[in-house]
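Thread title: Can someone regenerate the structure for this chain?

I was given the following input by a collaborator and told the matching structure tokens would be attached. They weren't. Posting the sequence so someone can regenerate them.
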Amino acid sequence: MDWRKFLHADPLPWLLEPDNPSARYFALTDLLDRPQGDPEVVATKAAINTGFPVKNVLDAMYTDGYWVKPGPGYSPKYRSTVWSVIFLDQLGADGNDPRIRAACEYVLSHTQAPNGGFGASARVDALHPANSAAIHCLHGNLLRAMLDFGFDGDERVQHAIEWQARSITGDNFTEYHKSGTPGPGFRCVADYGEPCAWGAIKALRALARIPQDKRTPQVKKAIRVGTTFLLSRDPVKADYPSGNGRISASWFKLGFPSGYVADVLQNLDVLAELGHAHDKRLKPAIEWVLSTQDAAGRWKNQYAYSGKLWVDFEPQGGVSKWVTLRVCRVLKASL
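Best answer:
Regenerated them for you:
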């Protein structure tokens, strides 16, 4: 069945336009299933790092591999080191670029706490964040970037994978802190000690990048725990545990790029990536997403971080290739 039959019009010709090589690359590979050796895929991938907006982000990097200022790189949002690396990954930047290799090396040397978790810290004078600064959303985003950029064989990345898995399951893990990740099952200080669905989504996005034949028993268990948690609520209601008793309106603002905030669509996206796209519990959320398309089968960017990035990837509230691409990917997987 063609997933496009559920859209008001076919967005593929628009997504494949050459003006946005990043979106074009993912449309070719994720929607048309073109292999990496396909000439169009090769040419499009080669154009990403020299095109908008990846070139703009890379041009702002210091030669040592950091953005804005040296140190752990969490602050300022969203131009500092960690955010630049996270967004470059989401844009499909080529990890073979020496500048990206340098940036990843900088993150692994300055943003990883001794326990293996990536920490949210703004102290320039710290050699690395304290263990108490490790937090699921940042860790998941950065771990996914390290895996996408080809650092899976690095011992520090393997340490990060282990931290991610054991911090979720709680098995042989006692390094919880009230100021960061305060307990197993995605409990987090940012959610007043309650299990954070945003953190769960980011963590699972990282673990999903590990090939199935390379997933340890701990990773497999962490994925089971995470998917069970996300599927325990209707994603379109997003009534996950909340320390302040409120459901964030950000869940319902589909956008790109994605920092620590997650939306309904990213919830669907990671569950689809982990093989749960056909779960009947996701049907109401998919139907809700489809109901928000325009007459051309496209979606708007309702959370674009306008004015906060090195350059706006898309205008706030404007029609979005990135959100449309994300919807199409979920829809294709659900059939």
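Residues 3-334 form a domain with the Glycosyltransferase fold (CATH 1.50.10).
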